[in-house]
Fold this protein.
Amino acid sequence: MILDVIRMGDPRLWQPSFRVEKFGTPELEALLQNLRDTMVAQDGAGLAAPQIGVPVQVVIFGVENNPRYPDAEPVPYTELVNPVLTPLSDAMDEDWEGCLSVPGLRGVVPRYAHLRYEGYDPRGQPIRRDVAGFHARVVQHECDHLHGILFPMRMRDFSRFGYTDILFPEAARAPSE
Ligand code: NI
């Protein structure tokens, strides 16, 4: 089911989410179906459960030929439960981010360049990956939602924050957000 994405200002987005205790349940499957449907409908690169009003530690992400991120390197579609992130170095990258909860805006956000993420798939199988670049950025963005953090709260330079169509007027296709 395609659901409305909660937008910045709603206090539900500031709250930390609960760990999932039971895997493979109909409730978890339904949540993932709703996350998938909603992310695809909005051309999102990722979506976290609290963005559709469910305060549990579940995120999905994946990018392949996404019109909102035409230059992004591909990220495999992933469903990640109870994630834990560990930076693999102190190196930080800066790049533009957007968020379905912050529609129409983009900003430059510093993120760890290399990190390990660990967690579970919806059936309880462990996931562990070492990633870099855009993949690492997307994971950090989505997992921040589980701690009540939106990308503007990570920004350091608000001169690089603005409306997508003003920042990128040359974009061939207007973002869907
Ligand atoms: Ni987001």
Q: What stands out?
A: Residues 99-101, 141, 145 surround nickel (II) ion (CB under 6 Å). Strands lie at 46-48, 58-63, 75-87, 92-97, 105-112, 114-120, 126-132, 161-163.
